[in-house]
Write a structure and sequence with these properties.
Layout: H1 10-24, E1 26-29, E2 32-35, H2 42-59, H3 66-75, E3 84-88, E4 92-97, E5 100-106, H4 113-130, H5 132-135, H6 139-154, E6 159-161, H7 163-174, E7 176-178, E8 181-186, E9 189-195, H8 200-204, E10 211-215, E11 218-219, H9 225-232, E12 239-245, E13 253-258, E14 260-262, E15 267-272, E16 275-280, H10 287-302, E17 308-312, H11 321-330, E18 336-342, E19 349-352, E20 364-368, H12 375-385, E21 390-393, E22 401-407, E23 413-422, E24 438-439, H13 448-453, H14 458-470, H15 476-483, H16 494-505, H17 507-522
Parallel strand pairs: 16-17, 17-20, 20-21, 21-24
Antiparallel strand pairs: 1-2, 3-4, 4-5, 6-23, 7-14, 8-9, 10-11, 10-12, 12-13, 15-16, 18-19, 18-23, 22-23
Helix pairs in contact: 2-4, 3-4, 3-6, 10-11, 11-12, 14-17
Length: about 525
């Protein structure tokens, strides 16, 4: 049944809306259907909002007081009920629903974080008392609308994730208890598409194309992808029982599998003509470990015949800063890797290389593009500035801020910008990015013509690199103008990989281009 609400008076609108909500949010009590608004606890709300406000005022990269952002958060309640509005006066705010005044509340004195927290809680309670949409919204929806309103007002990288989303985020970063499969829903059941190496699923004997027909005795028929994933995950060392239907077999199989800590793979590798190719898709807790593992295996296989390494970070959105530092450290013998600077004392960090180079001084080429961001830019800038690698591709994304992830009392998390990334040579990466030694913006074909033209571009490249390292953070237009010398693009072209391979095989040209990069950075140290 479809119910349409025409333009009506406020009282009739709320009556009709309440009737619809009663049909969709109710419980049976002796045969009587009763509307059940989601419970909203003032103490719980106060605890969540207070934690968020304290984090923002203490740790955000710029000085900001609660009076600067609180009302933006409260206006976020309009995302739940568009008729809820706030009018701000010098000393009071007026709350309205559809133009009708529901309450006037005095504003706290500036800088009083506790009082501004209490304002948020009181406004939420007042608004819920008059708005059916807000009354039936879950506490999580209320937190989300308020914190989204605040954080989007600060910058585009600060954000809020509720408990479910935050749990998925933590699993991506820190691993999760699972069995190590990828799957998709085919028809009515999950079907395994990939079994990860070294995982419980592989050891148990699961295979791609196996269909999972039940989990712990419960049929998987009709389960949505996320619901199945939540069921498959569990505590490390706990057990899960799967019943599998294998293609071309009449009888199903049962497997009892012990969960272990699973990390989503971020590294793929290949060896061709004694050159190691490493694709790094993002940075999680296992990335540096897997890079080291891939390089050890390659060194055992190739030995002294190793020609060089290609690190492909095109499309890499970043991830964990310390993992990007460790990846750079794997290829550096000494010197600065990066530094960070912000307002909070803990945001000021210096990172130095630990004295090993797993490539044994062999050539390294790093591939980047306009979607290589954040942690990927840290690794690229470190290897370039230290004269350890040549960068091929386009200007990178230019996300040079660091976000700290802060857990809230409701098990959600707030990602808050708190410092800036500084390359070894001293330039600030934010809104500038990393400039490639060899620009492939707009390049197509097999790269032969571009490769032949590399020596002729050295003078312009040298001038841009020098300006890139000297430009001030406040010179916004000049920074954008520099980026136009090699515009950021999303590239997944074989052209870039071919140029990287040919550079590694042409030792004389590689050395000349490497010296060009190193001298530009060294001039500022």
């Amino acid at each position: 049944m479809t119910v349409k609400i025409a333009k009506t008076g406020k009282a009739l609108r709320n009556f009709l809306l309440l009737g619809i909500l009663t049909l969709s949010a109710c419980t049976s009590d002796n045969g009587v259907m009763v509307a059940k608004p989601d419970g909203f606890s003032k103490p719980a709300a106060r605890e969540v909002i207070s934690a968020a406000f304290n984090y923002i005022t203490e740790r955000y990269i710029d000085v900001i007081a609660p009076e600067d952002f609180t009302l933006e958060g409260l206006r976020g309640l309009g995302a739940i009920d568009p008729e809820f509005t706030i009018e701000q006066g010098p000393d009071v705010i007026t709350l309205k629903i559809g133009g009708d005044v529901i309450e006037r509340i005095s504003l706290p004195r500036n800088g009083d974080t506790t009082a501004w927290t209490e304002l948020v809680v009181n406004v939420s309670v007042a608004a819920r008392s008059k708005s059916e949409e807000l009354r039936f919204a879950s506490p999580e929806k209320i937190y989300e609308s308020i914190l989204d309103g605040i954080l989007s007002h600060l910058d585009i990288y600060s954000r809020y994730a509720g408990m479910k989303e935050a749990t998925r985020n933590r699993e991506k970063r820190d691993g999760f208890g699972g069995i190590g499969i990828r799957y998709k829903i085919v028809g009515q059941h999950p079907k395994i598409t990939f079994v990860m190496p070294g995982t419980p699923a592989l050891r148990a004997g699961l295979k791609a194309n196996d269909t999972i027909i039940s989990i712990d005795g419960v049929p998987t028929t009709g389960l949505l992808r996320n619901a199945f994933g939540d069921t498959l995950h569990g505590a490390v060392k706990s057990h899960v029982r799967l019943r599998i239907q294998r293609p071309n077999e009449s009888e199903s199989r049962q497997y009892d599998i012990e969960r272990s800590l699973i990390f989503i793979p971020t590294i793929s590798s290949a060896v061709q003509n004694d050159i190691v190719y490493l694709k790094i898709s993002s940075f999680n807790q296992r990335t540096a470990h897997d890079v080291l593992d891939k390089m050890k295996k390659a060194n055992r296989k190739i030995g002294t015949n190793l020609k060089g390494v290609i690190l492909d970070m095109r499309g890499n959105p970043g991830g964990l800063l310390k993992q990007s530092i460790r990846v750079a450290d794997l290829f550096l013998a000494q010197g600065k890797i990066s530094q960070t600077g912000g307002r909070h004392p803990d945001s000021v960090q210096y990172y130095e290389a630990g004295g090993r180079d797993i490539a044994n001084g062999k050539p390294i080429v790093v591939l980047v593009d306009g979607m290589s961001a954040s942690a990927a830019e840290v690794t690229a800038a470190a290897l370039q500035d230290r004269g350890r690698a040549i960068i091929v591709g386009t200007s990178s994304f230019g996300k040079g801020t660091i976000q700290t992830v802060l857990r809230l009392p409701n098990d959600g998390e707030m990602t808050l910008t708190w410092s800036r990334l500084i390359a070894p040579s001293g330039y600030i990466i934010h809104e500038l990015g990393v400039f490639p030694t060899i620009c492939t913006a707009g390049a197509t074909g097999d790269g032969d013509a571009m490769f032949k033209n590399i020596p002729a571009q050295r003078i312009r490249t040298s001038a841009v690199l020098e300006a890139w390292h000297r430009i001030g953070f406040e010179e916004k237009k000049a920074r954008q103008d520099l980026r136009s010398f090699c515009p950021p693009e999303r590239r997944n072209k074989a052209t870039d990989t071919k140029i990287a391979r040919r550079l590694i095989e042409n030792k004389a040209l590689y050395t000349r281009m490497l010296n060009l990069t190193a001298s530009s950075a060294a001039a500022l140290e």
